[in-house]
Design goal:
There is one protein chain. The radius of gyration is 17 Å and the shape is globular. The chain is built from eight helices and nine strands. The protein has a single domain, classed as Phosphatidylinositol (PI) phosphodiesterase (TIM Barrel), CATH 3.20.20. The longest helix is centred in the middle third of the chain and has 22 residues. An eight-stranded parallel barrel has the order 1-2-4-5-6-7-8-9, surrounded by seven helices. It is an alpha/beta fold. Helix 3 packs parallel to helix 4 and helix 4 runs parallel beside helix 5.
Length: 251
C-alpha cells in the first residue's frame, strides 16, 4: 500500500508533513507528484496552478523555486499545518531516505513541458540514488524510486535521461493496446484507476510480467479484493482505514 500524495486525507498533500503522517500510520511507501518551477527545479505539486493547495496564484511554471518555497501549502487543509511548504523533489527524496519510505514519483508536467519535466525529474532521482550508493550501498538497494506518468512523452524522456530507473505508465481505463504501450516505453508497470479493472484484465497484465498498481483505493473490502486478483500495489487516501498490508484498520 502507498500513501497517496504522502498522507492521504489526513494532511496537506505533497508536503513533508504529509509524508510524516503517512509514516506515523505505518506506511513505508508513498506516492507524490513532481512538477517543474520556472527555473527548472522539481517541486512537489499536483496541479499546474497554485490556487487549490497554496496561498499563491498562477502557474507553477511562472514561479521560481525560491518563490514557491515561500508559499503556505498547509493552511488550505487546516490551520495546524500553516507552516507546511512546497518541498523540492530533492528535499522530499532526502526526507524519505531518512525515514525509509519507498517512493512512486509521479511526473506531472505542465502542458507543453512534458519532455523537459520527465528529463529533469529522472535526472534528479538518478543523481540522488547514485550519491546514496556511494555513501551507503546497502540501503540503496531498496531505495530505487519508481517514476510514473500519464504522459508518454515524459516517460520517454525519463527513459533517455535515466534508463536505470523503473517506469510506470498511468491510465484511467486500461486500453486495449496496453501491452504495446508498455513495450514502447519499456515500462515496468501499468497503473490504472481501480474502478476500470476486471479480474481478467488484471490476470492478463500480471501474466505479461508487468507490475500492476491501482489508484485510488479507499475501501478496505475493495483493497482486499484487488489484492486477491493479484494487483501488486494500491494507492490510498484512507491511510486511517486501510493498513499498509491492505487489511482493514481497527476503528
Amino acid at each position: 500500500m502507498l500513501a497517496h500524495r504522502g498522507g492521504g486525507t489526513l494532511a496537506p498533500e505533497n508536503t513533508l508533513v504529509a509524508l510524516d503522517v503517512g509514516f506515523a500510520h505505518g506506511y513505508r511507501a508513498a506516492e507524490f507528484d513532481a512538477v517543474l518551477s520556472a527555473d527548472e527545479v522539481p517541486v512537489l505539486l499536483h496541479d499546474a496552478s497554485l490556487e487549490r493547495t497554496t496561498d499563491g496564484a498562477g502557474s507553477v511554471a511562472s514561479k521560481t523555486a525560491a518563490e514557491l518555497a515561500r508559499l503556505d501549502a498547509g493552511s488550505w487543509f487546516d490551520a495546524r499545518f500553516a507552516d507546511a511548504r512546497l518541498p523540492t523533489l530533492l528535499q522530499a527524496l532526502q526526507h524519505c531516505w531518512a525515514l525509509g519510505i519507498w517512493l512512486n514519483v509521479e511526473i506531472k508536467p505542465v502542458p507543453g513541458r512534458e519532455e523537459r519535466t520527465g528529463t529533469v525529474v529522472a535526472q534528479t532521482v538518478a543523481a540522488f540514488c547514485a550519491e546514496k550508493r556511494k555513501s551507503d550501498p546497502a540501503p540503496s538497494k531498496w531505495f530505487s524510486p519508481l517514476l510514473s506518468s500519464f504522459a508518454p512523452e515524459a516517460l520517454e524522456a525519463a527513459r533517455r535521461a535515466a534508463p536505470g530507473l523503473r517506469r510506470g505508465l498511468l491510465f484511467g481505463r486500461v486500453p486495449r493496446d496496453w501491452k504495446s504501450s508498455l513495450r514502447a516505453l519499456d515500462a515496468f508497470s501499468l497503473h490504472c484507476d481501480h474502478r476500470s479493472l476486471t479480474p481478467a484484465v488484471a490476470q492478463a497484465i500480471r501474466q505479461s510480467g508487468s507490475g500492476l498498481l491501482c489508484y485510488t483505493v479507499n475501501d478496505p473490502a475493495r483493497a482486499r479484493q484487488l489484492l486477491d486478483w493479484g494487483v501488486d500495489a494500491l494507492c490510498t487516501d484512507r491511510i486511517d482505514l486501510i493498513r499498509p498490508d491492505g487489511s482493514a484498520a481497527v476503528t
